[in-house]
Model the fold of this input.
Amino acid sequence: SSGINAEWPLRPGVQSCRKVLSRERNPPIDEVIDSGLLPHLVQFLSFEDNPGLQFESCWALTNIASGSSKQTKSVVECGAVPHFIKLLSSPHLNVCEQAVWALGNVAGDGSTYRDHVINSGIIPPLIKLVNPDVSMSFLRNISWTLSNLCRNKEPPPAMDVITSLLPTICALLNFGDKHVLSDACWALSYITDASNDRIQVVIRSGIVKKLVELLAHPEVLVVTPSLRAIGNIVTGNDEQTQCVINHGALQHFPKLLWHKKEKSTDCDSALIPLL
Done:
């Protein structure tokens, strides 16, 4: 269309910007911010007739948002978050996936921006993306962003946010990929690192049995967060501790205490409330 042709010359310039920002060593994030490019990159996110430009702009903004808190703030203050959320419904999967990554970077910065992303409406379109047809690399990205929506304690996410996310987090534990399992377990560890009412919500979801089973997973990447979540649950009341015992957690602890890669403090913290 004429729209694509009119905007097409912009893409190489934005792509060059993105490539410079993708450098492993000392990407010039502050220079790009100081140049005044950010409002233009945010504007390009709305160019629906040019998905290539949307993708490159989203990728560049993702790299900026992955920097310091001050750099993340510059992306948020340019109004990028609502655009990222709209792109979660893009028919172009590469654009959609890049938006998930960008939002994960913003949400991971701390509770303020986590809540900003949540209040901007990320949850419905994000959980809609979890389906059997999604690629594993995309699912890893989604599970990481979901875990960042549960992260940070001062304050923790609102209870209605937790109840909205829990069914999807539990569903992710049925996928076999170690990275997806790890992020889902980290999400549960963040949720349970709080008051007993939040621990109870996790118990009611029926996921404790699966968490206990994951203590026998061959990958420490999975064992560590599942053990952390279980350790948090047993710091709750007697009934919550008993729930973990009833699902056979104790049989896993002798092996975990001798696990060469597992931090002994994680296992100790789970065991102490049981003694």
Notes: Confidence is low (pLDDT under 50) at residues 1-8.
